[in-house]
Amino acid sequence: MIGYILFTVAAFLPLLIYLRNPYFLADLNYAIVAIRIGWRLSKIKKKFFSILDAFLDKVNKDPEKTFVIFEERSYSYGWADRESNRIARALSAHAGLKEGDTAALFLANEPHFIWVWLALAKLGCVASLLNCNIRSKSLLHCFSCCDAKVLILGADLKEAVEEILPGLKELGIRVFVLSNHSDIEGIESLSDKIEKASDQPLSPQLRANTNLKSPAAYIYTSGTTGLPKAAVVNHERVWVASSLLSFAGVHSSDVLYLYLPLYHSSGFLMGLCGAIDKGITVVLRQKFSVSNFWKDCRKHNVTIFQYIGEIMRYLCNTPKKDNDKDHKVRLAIGNGIRPDTWADFQERFGNIGILECYGATESNIGFFNYVGKAGAIGREHFLYKLSCPYALIRYDTEKEEPVRNSKGFCIEVPKGETGLLVAKIKERTPFYGYAKNKQQTEKKKLRDVFERGDLYFNSGDLLRIDHEGFIYFQDRIGDTFRWKGENVATTEVADHLLAMDFVDEANVYGVRVPGHEGRIGMAALKLKENMDFDCEAMYQHVKNYLPSYARPRFIRIQDAVEVNGTYKQLKVKLTNESFNPEIIMDPLFFLEDGKGYVPMTPEIFTAITVGKIKL
Ligand SMILES: *[C@@H]1O[C@H](CO)[C@@H](O)[C@H](O)[C@H]1NC(C)=O
Ligand SMILES: *[C@@H]1O[C@H](CO)[C@@H](O)[C@H](O)[C@H]1NC(C)=O
Ligand SMILES: *[C@@H]1O[C@H](CO)[C@@H](O)[C@H](O)[C@H]1NC(C)=O
Ligand SMILES: *[C@@H]1O[C@H](CO)[C@@H](O)[C@H](O)[C@H]1NC(C)=O
């Protein structure tokens, strides 16, 4: 009898569990991996071990293993180790770098980015990873946030640095270029010095005082307003971010295709550092190329790649081919893919797992959708919530602030409703903020959320959690929008527009475009009296000073800023009116690729909405 009952229970238990929660196994698996990773992090906490140590481990175990493939060359772990020894010695001898110093890297995606970063780590130095698209005032600003002593730049970026040399000189910064000679005063050559240096290992004593809380890198973000900010990434954070590849079930035989910029945290922390942790091969590309994507994947037996939503759409938009499913890719990790693209992609290119993630460089919270449910950015898990308490709170989009109850506390939204994501700041989920920017750091903190004296990180993102616990991204608040996977700070763009002598006021915002993720840049300008909008001058200016993703693609000229609404109401209205010439009676301009600002027409509008003009 008892045997019979046990048998019945054993037979039906899985069914019962499944009926109650069809994701039971995925949830269980998540819990097991999370506990394993937590255990490992606690070990690293006891006895400090950096991502550089993980690299050196791989070098010891298998020096011949291919580490990086770039263009037609491949470099082994052993080779990378020796090359970074040389660079470290050259930098120590000629730039006087030592433990605790910061050096800024201004390099495109190329192997030297990795070698120089490893070299800095070997000296116990902090790498400040500058965005190689930024120029002039922004570049100088980024540079001055991190107190770097030295700037190391790629030979192809000399011109951008020449422009700010006087400013760098004022800050007393040594500038080195990765080439054999330099004919510019104030820029010293580095490659010749590297060539002459020894490749013998450096003593770990050089970095003896580095610990889990020491900064490992500065990574720039345009999280909310103004100029880019340097998020402080310490060694603990490096480990947390790079463990994503463990969650994804990556093993040492995998090959990662990496074309995302190494100066962002997805490419650098999750991609590169994650790859080093797993000891895998990285196929590095300077930039994404839709025509070479699958060719590269086939040629190098790529098994994993990282994406941003746009990339997946570009891939789906290419003409179908017979060999679409002929590759070894098994997993795509990234964020921002839309549900329809998700389905298209899998149908077209085969059974590739998609791991959609959510997080930000500086944030103390992240999610990923380990179940693979199309459209969700993550899934709630009680274990995660226990270790990283977070909540979605009611938010007033007009006033741009959280709604508070009569006692002054925030209100958690019920399941299914959209709310602002906030995450508790505490010992285990710290928020380190931005280097030398107390004001912006404070702006990301929210106090007295659920009780007096508590402290939360304000993500600035509106999310929704459904009844099954899946998390969906809804929108981003405040003065940023996302386009082509990059955050654009509206105030920074407005500052650049205001530099034109005919612009009196500038209001920058992002507008949605059918069939595209994120929002594209648009500006409403009020011109100075008796001045005209100079298309050519404006085009030259935005081209010179703003990376392509931040340039306003649409500009509308307003006679006056409406007076009755608040500034914020105005922005909501402008955003809603978008760039439709049928609705907007003001003069309206469109930034045509390679041509400049041209008057907007209904034909252009239609071509954009049906996707004939690619933005
Ligand atoms: C520098 O010169 C050496 C030969 O002396 C050459 O092998 C190397 O490729 C050169 N490096 C650069 C960056 O031009
Ligand atoms: C890719 O895999 C195939 C078959 O598994 C193998 O023959 C080929 O050598 C591999 N190519 C590379 C670049 O590893
Ligand atoms: C401002 O006033 C005008 C006319 O009185 C009205 O049509 C418009 O809706 C008002 N705008 C706002 C944002 O209240
Ligand atoms: C935008 O305008 C349309 C009418 O054109 C209106 O139905 C809609 O509610 C508006 N949305 C917002 C967010 O104001």
The largest sheet has its strands arranged as 2-1-11-10-12-13-14-15
Summed over residues and divided by their number, the pLDDT gives a mean of 90
> What are the low-pLDDT stretches, counting only 5+ consecutive residues below 50?
none
Instruction: State the helix count.
Output: 20
Oligomer: single chain
Count of individual beta strands: 30
The global form is globular
Ends apart, CA distance between termini: 70 Å
Rg over CA atoms, rounded to whole Å, is 25 Å
Structure description:
One of its GO terms (cellular component) is plasma membrane. One of its GO terms (biological process) is long-chain fatty acid import into cell. By secondary structure, this protein is α/β, with parallel strands linked by helices. The chain folds into four domains: 2-45; 77-234, Rossmann fold (3-Layer(aba) Sandwich), CATH 3.40.50; 363-476, Roll (Luciferase, domain 3); 480-609, GMP Synthetase, Chain A, domain 3, CATH 3.30.300. 35% of the residues lie in helices and 24% in strands. The protein is built from 20 helices and 30 strands. It has an eight-stranded mixed β-sheet. A seven-stranded mixed β-sheet has the order 7-6-5-3-4-8-9, with helices on both faces. Strands 16, 17, 20, 21, 22 and 23 form a six-stranded antiparallel β-sheet that branches. Strand 5 (150-153), helix 7 (158-170) and strand 6 (174-177) form a beta-alpha-beta unit. Helix 4 (77-95) crosses helix 5 (111-122), helix 9 packs across helix 11 (265-278) and helix 13 (309-316) crosses helix 14 (339-349). The protein is globular. The termini are far apart. The mean pLDDT is 90. Bound molecules: 2-acetamido-2-deoxy-beta-D-glucopyranose (NAG) (4 copies). One 2-acetamido-2-deoxy-beta-D-glucopyranose is lined by residues 179-180, 191, 195.
